[in-house]
Amino acid sequence: METPPNAKSAANINPAKTIRANDWFSAGKRVFYDTKNKKFLLNGENGEAKKIVQIHTRIDKDETQTDGSVWASFMPGWPDGSYGWSRVNQHLSGQNIGHRLFFDYVGLGDSDKPEDYPYSTIERADMMEALWKANGIKSTFIFSFDYSSLVTLELLCRQEDLIKAGIEPETRIEGVLLMNGGLYADGHSHPWFTTPILKSWMGGFVTSLAQRSKTIFAELMKPLWSKDYKVTAEEIEQLFDAIGRRKGIYAMSKSADFVSYHKKNAERMDLSRLYRSMRDAVSFHVVGSEQDPFEGRQAYLAKERLGAEGLDVRILPGGHLTTSEHPDLIADIILDVGPSSEKFKTAKSAREKPLRETTRKLKVS
């Protein structure tokens, strides 16, 4: 649980250049998603108009990869969505880590923010599965941030259920990196002035003010960074653009209720249970931040409860938005454990060997 030896203090780090939000989103596209049938509409397909939303997706292809390669699925966090990965992606530029999928849930980034929408962990997991299917992704390594950790736990539960039933998942999750998100229902520690106030009757009022005022927005965002991090005016400007498009700041309060679902499904969506059940088939990794006021306890609990059993847990300096404070350190971890790393390839080969042997013996007999 030690801080990486190459970690710099938040005050002295030289982060990657701030990417303009418009440049980030213009590199992707908005696609139609049928929320009723849980599918993306391709090749001119039609759906029920009232049930269709547009979702921002972005795919960075790695030409060194074959069609059967493991994809890297970068799942968005709250509140900055896929844009939160922009600096990390800069550090990964030119690295052969496989095809990279970025996207925004409904309510985030350049996706739609409908007034009346059933925002939930289930809804987000359904969308993730549909997006994999639409892009023909058969296997993936998930990199999740913030509340996408809960979506990942839900997806792992679904994979576990399918495999126990003897059904091969359409998209197999090969590995997960869970960063600054929920892992244990008893580990959530959101202070009153953050997510709880957004869920209250004041949430809509506060976010509507922030939608119209960059000054109020900046104050609302302050808890996301560590106290030592010097946030620039350009960062605030681009974050305002990334979150605020299509009235996204106002919509923040509508998608803030995700802890309650975790608590209602505490046993099923428990990292320790899933790790012990699936570690022979899935590569597990956890990253936390020292000054994260939202989920600061989670990584420490994971180390306490599973460290002796071999779970890889790393604690980085900085606050909740470590993706902007320390994108280089995150990129280093991705390269160390992700789908292109020798660690992952060796472990994956070892996991598949018994299956290959069983298949060979069945063919011989």
Summarize the structure.
By secondary structure, the protein is α/β, with parallel strands linked by helices. It has 15 helices and nine strands.
Helix content: 25-40%
The number of helical runs is 15
- How many whole angstroms does the radius of gyration measure? 20 Å
Label the overall shape: globular
- What is the residue-averaged pLDDT? 86
Low-pLDDT parts are: 1-15, 355-365
Total beta strand runs: 9
Task: Give the distance, in angstroms, between the N- and C-terminal Cα atoms.
Answer: 49 Å
Strand order of the largest sheet: 2-1-3-5-4-6-7-8-9
Q: What letter string, H or E per element, gives the SSE order?
A: HEEEEHEHEHEHHHHHHHEHEHHH
The major pleated sheet works out as:
9 strands, mixed
Percentage of residues in strands: 5-15%
User: What is the structural class?
Assistant: alpha/beta
Q: Which short descriptors sum up this protein?
A:
disordered C terminus, nine-stranded mixed beta sheet, disordered N terminus, 39% helix, alpha/beta
Would you give an account of this structure?
The chain is of the alpha/beta class and 365 residues long. The protein contains 15 helices and nine strands. A nine-stranded mixed sheet has the order 2-1-3-5-4-6-7-8-9, sandwiched between helices. The radius of gyration is 20 Å and the shape is globular. It starts with 20 loop residues before the first helix and ends with a helix. The N terminus and C terminus are likely disordered.
